[in-house]
Amino acid sequence: MAGHxxxxxxxxxxxxxxxxxxxxxxxxxxAIIVAAKHGGPDPDTNLKLRYAINxxxxxxxxxxxxxxxxxxxxxxxxxxxxxxxxxxGHGPGGVGxxxxxxxxxxxxxxxxxxxxxxxxxxxxxxxxxxAWMFERKGLVVIPADQTDEESxxxxxxxxxxxxxxxxxxxxxxTCPLDAYNDLTxxxxxxxxxxxxxxxxxxxxxxxxVLTGTDAKNAVKLMERLDDHDDVQQVAANxxxxxxxxxxxxx
Length: 250
Known about the structure:
The chain is built from 9 helices and 11 strands. Strands 4-2-3-10 form a 4-stranded antiparallel sheet. The protein has a 4-stranded antiparallel sheet with strand order 6-7-5-8, covered by helices on one side. It is an alpha+beta fold.
């Protein structure tokens, strides 16, 4: 994988920029609301809520904001009725794209997402058109300067993890859904390890390398999807070679 940059890394860097603007607070509030609504307000028994709260704390969301979102989800106060929607499509070069949505009005969101795809040279597709390229798994991202690959692999395997890869300056540890809780607990409990990111999401079974115009348009598509208020997570099965990425970054 050396010499290429995964979208996960690009998205992670962009997420840090979004956090400075405060936009991501709104998205994480929605995630907390939905998690509390479906699994209850106690993060000790609701893992989805627990990780949504952890993500919110990681970007310094105020405690009051977190508590208000939990209360909305638990039905203690009136609030928007968000629903989870999954969109699938293809981007430039035929790459597969999965878009996880939280919206209070899918009749508004669907055409907006469709337009983003079309403007960037992609196409929103029917259910199943891209899902076969992905597997829903757990992912934990750990800075490479915190550990070495052999030690991390040993820890991950014992906790149910199935792969450890060096992607840029971070290790990406993946696991099946049923091992996610054990893996994150093991990593959080290990001395010297502080994850940069941990999530349940769609990970590509294989990736393709995009260059030139396709790469630029694909990155633009992903950035515009990330910027949409209703989009929670975006996954794609492409990589960008370092030279093209440097050109895109300007």
